[in-house]
Amino acid sequence: MPTHTDLTGRVALVTGASRGIGRAIALALAEAGASVAVNYRERAADALSVVTDIQAMGRRSVAVGADVSDGAAVTDMVARVTAELGPVDVLVNNAGIAIIRGIDDLTEEAFDTTIAVNLKSAFLCTKAVLPHMRAQQWGRIVNISSGAARGAGGVGLHYNASKAGMEGLTRGYAARLVKEGVTVNAIAPSLIETDMVRSRLASSPARIPMGRFGTSEEVAQAALMAIGNGYMTGQTIQLNGGMSFL
Ligand code: NAP
């Protein structure tokens, strides 16, 4: 049995891959041999630079702009990826937003937007790629949750709810797909040094027992492990520098 994840001949779609954790996962999947679709919402130039890096590894890649909270946009995105790279074998639902709000200033709009971008998107993207995965009896889905699914975190209860929902979605799909060769797992990182954390969420890693932020590459390594392991499904991998000991 190979000890490393070999994705030669597989097509992967990573949502929110123009920067941060998604970018690192897209590069890691390409390094493992996959053709990779790089989804983004606004930052086309950043997404294109990820595509260039992937192509430099000798893999195929395409940037696909789409708001993954919009069902029609997701349908178009998956059709475009299928036309350009082939049907999707590996889906990483990574796109997410963290709008910082307290109990009193949380609006209905911020609540709805957060649930749509962080949770509904994973349902929409999964629904769009599942027919191919089920038909070939092989597929890998990784959902990027957060320590905030179980802990308080620094963003707000809307973010907690979106990420807890994502873990429910993970178990729900995993249980129903368990006989069909499709595994569904989640990764719950806490305080990874990306734009999301740098822009207001946490200025210092003082509350992390390891005394440092995690890196996007460390999250990508866990994603690759989940994708490479055919017996693990419905699980959430915590990745938090020891914060669960607190
Ligand atoms: P980031 O640096 O802010 O990057 C967010 C990515 O998501 C960007 O590529 C962005 O695209 C994309 N995106 C946002 N809304 C989108 C939409 N509606 N449709 C398509 N793409 C969209 O975030 P990150 O820190 O890498 O976080 C990635 C994931 O990890 C998120 O789900 C986040 O909740 C989760 N997470 C992060 C941490 C952390 O400490 N950083 C901890 C726990 C969980 P554009 O570049 O085009 O805007």
What report would you give on this structure?
The protein has a single domain, classed as NAD(P)-binding Rossmann-like Domain (Rossmann fold, 3-Layer(aba) Sandwich), CATH 3.40.50.720. It has a seven-stranded parallel sheet with strand order 3-2-1-4-5-6-7, with helices on both faces. It is built from seven helices and seven strands, in the order βαβαβαβαβαβααβ. It is globular. By secondary structure, the chain is of the alpha/beta class. It binds NADP nicotinamide-adenine-dinucleotide phosphate. NADP nicotinamide-adenine-dinucleotide phosphate (NAP) binds at residues 15-22, 39-43, 46, 67-69, 94-98, 117, 144, 146, 189-192, 194-197.
Top-tier CATH class: Alpha Beta
Report the C-alpha radius of gyration, rounded. Answer: 17 Å
Q: Sum up the overall morphology in one term.
A: globular
CATH topology-level name: Rossmann fold
Distance between the termini: 37 Å
The largest β sheet comes out as: 7 strands, parallel
